[in-house]
Recover the amino acids of this structure.
């Protein structure tokens, strides 16, 4: 019997379940964050997808309709944001299925979709999956908090240090 992966829209009642799953890993993801995502989905500024494996929460991904990154925002390119799959559910195709859902949603409004990926080793799996799916760097170099890092400048390598990628959908 194969595992049943379900991808669906985020519901407000998902917030405590998702937050608890990540807090159990020691991650600082709060109920408020997911309630905000649910509100933003209702407002139409973010689309949120939840993955379940055999009925159990496994991960989520969101799509921002107006990116905070000016080169995407200024031309209407939606941004994949906050893809997370619980470690015990990785390597089962869940991240790919979540990306399929956000890319399909993006294609309904745009010919391109973008994303930012972190630069340190914790992002290694994400870097590889994005390249395998056809995402390419947008050519603007390293960003910090959506602003370019100038040559010769120092930048803290944390979650705000990214390389922005783009692909056609």
């Amino acid at each position: 019997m194969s595992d049943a992966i379900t991808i669906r829209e985020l519901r407000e009642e998902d917030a405590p379940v998702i937050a608890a799953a990540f807090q159990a890993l020691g991650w600082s993801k709060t109920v408020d964050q997911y309630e905000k995502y649910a509100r933003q989905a209702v407002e139409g500024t973010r689309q949120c997808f939840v993955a379940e494996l055999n009925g159990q929460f496994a991960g989520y991904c969101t799509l921002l309709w107006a990116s905070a990154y000016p080169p995407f925002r200024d031309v209407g390119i939606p941004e994949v944001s906050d893809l997370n799959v619980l470690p015990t559910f990785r390597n089962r195709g869940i991240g790919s299925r979540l990306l399929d859902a956000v890319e399909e949603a993006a294609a309904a409004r745009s010919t391109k979709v973008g994303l930012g990926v972190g630069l340190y080793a914790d992002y290694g799996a994400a870097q590889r999956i994005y390249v395998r799916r056809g995402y390419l760097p947008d050519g603007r170099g390293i960003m910090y908090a959506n602003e370019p890092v100038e040559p010769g400048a120092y930048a803290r390598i944390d979650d705000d240090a990214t390389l922005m990628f783009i692909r056609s959908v």
Observations:
- The chain has a mean pLDDT of 95.
